């Protein structure tokens, strides 16, 4: 059954195209001329969107469409395209009339056709992809590149100049929009939210971003909720929600919603223009009042709710089945055009309904009235430097991190909470960079021992404060909200638009954003393919409340798997660090803040631990990534009997204690202790830029000697990294094995068989020359494990010899107990406070 615009179909067959009827005049802010301009830009973008999905040749339909000119695989998503093109055209009109700086964030999944088409019409696509020229040949190449091998994906990605985030996963448009608006006072972020995306948890939580948006110093976010009714096959929740309920919902969230709906283009154009004018005026009124010092009672922020049919302007029905306005328009409405001649005619009629011969001149250039709607220069949404954040990036003014060094007279003579010194450093980073650096944290800044930052700034909140609040103000630059999604997403939006920052979280719950980290990594990976994508600041993550010292919180807080996911990303993007003490943490984090285009994950506990290295030693150690710790080594520079290796603060403690135990109880044993601060250093240089070559690796670990390895995370990571090294079977790795509970700190390492006693027993088992002499020592260590088991159940704390242990080279008469860093109570050592 052939039902799509019979008159057009007849005209197509005759190859005699009628001129398009101009949009009917309707009451509203658009003059007839401007209404025509907006409508024709919209139609041109729609034509280009359909062409991307279907055509491999005959880009302007200058001859009858044939099967050979259709792509063999039809990929793409038409359902959202026309609505997004409609929004884009109207935002261009708004920019032209107000000179506002606006960027467009496409939230609906697979919105690539829209942003490709609009960037092409603006000329920016050609600017960054010179082969995709604004003529018939370039249009053909654009169509052929879309969703084809060696081409571009169907969603927004780095290849699209008006996209500033990876658009393949739903849920993160609005959180990125707020991140982009922070500290961008002149910017309006138009964020298009699909009604399917609106159902995701991250998006649902993102609406509260206005509670942290300060109109004095920040830009504005204009959410545009695009309700077209359906997901892939089912209706969406908000599309079936009546307007009065939507109004109540979003009014309660602090927004003033403006509604635009319909399917008559002329009427909807005028309604959309009117709503955008009100939204822009509302934003400016809020900002002007706040910036004049007389904010009064701040008005609600405007938002727009747009209801248009899914697949608007496409086939209304196919073979007697409704398509436009249904889920059937979601992807490829006419999927069988290569097999069904009638469907091929329908596609041709559909594309001719936009009248491409009037939208593009004889050479294929966009018509003059269409390009006249395009803003000038960087006001074009696809040319804005905010969507290519490296263009705006300013190097941080960083203090000398040596000034924050912790005095360490000798290894193990000081106990401190490592992040406290980092907090002092970050305090001064905030003081020296008041407009382009923020700290993002889910209500754990104090918990993670970064308290010193509140000497420089406050927690941000736009709500009224009360006398008992602690460091809360609208001007605060510490962004605390109890949502990993929002914290990490705000940081992404912030750095993607040219600023710097860090996110700190409990290790176990950082995994909530695994998929967000994955998408950001993919964005960075693809950006390397496009030199015009300028480098941005690295995404810096601090995990300072980790599995081994969450004994008081229990099993739910004991999970080190965040790094496992990060390590699956390409090696040129990820950097993983495990600083064992305060001075190493300072070294590592200063490096991270200076880096570009990486995801840096730094794991360092917040509990009182031994400090091992002076600042100078830490500097040398971190610059190498891994080194022998001479103070705990007694091999005299010769081949050791066994190598004790460690990654992480708690594994480092256990390895040093293992060396101490073995030297005390097995005289003559030769040990080497190797600490790794840069986990990627273990890898081959072929697998990671930080990897050690075999010569360096064997200098540290020898060629044949057994290596007893204590690792912060899951053991398989180390086994995978040393695969292919000499005698790789000699590496015996202990790490987290998913055993945990509410228990004592030492019991955590016992439960996972990474305690000093387990490591010492392993070491003795692999030293052949001592094996016959040490059975009684092994029995002693095993007895200690049993003694520990009984003691903690009777006394609810670790044995005194564990709680009070400290490093000393005198194995007969221990020397004085370690000093405590300033502000550290002695009783807090080795307890989780």
From TrEMBL:
Cofactor(s), names only, from the UniProt record: thiamine diphosphate
Keyword ATP-binding in record: no
GO BP: any one term: carbohydrate metabolic process
Any Pfam family matching the protein: XFP_C
All copies of domain Xylulose 5-phosphate/Fructose 6-phosphate phosphoketolase C-terminal, residue ranges: 606-807
Domain Xylulose 5-phosphate/Fructose 6-phosphate phosphoketolase N-terminal: 30-391
Alphabetized UniProt keyword annotations: Lyase, Thiamine pyrophosphate
GO molecular function annotations of the record: aldehyde-lyase activity
Family note: Belongs to the XFP family.
Protein name in the entry: Phosphoketolase family protein
Taxonomic source organism: Paracidobacterium acidisoli
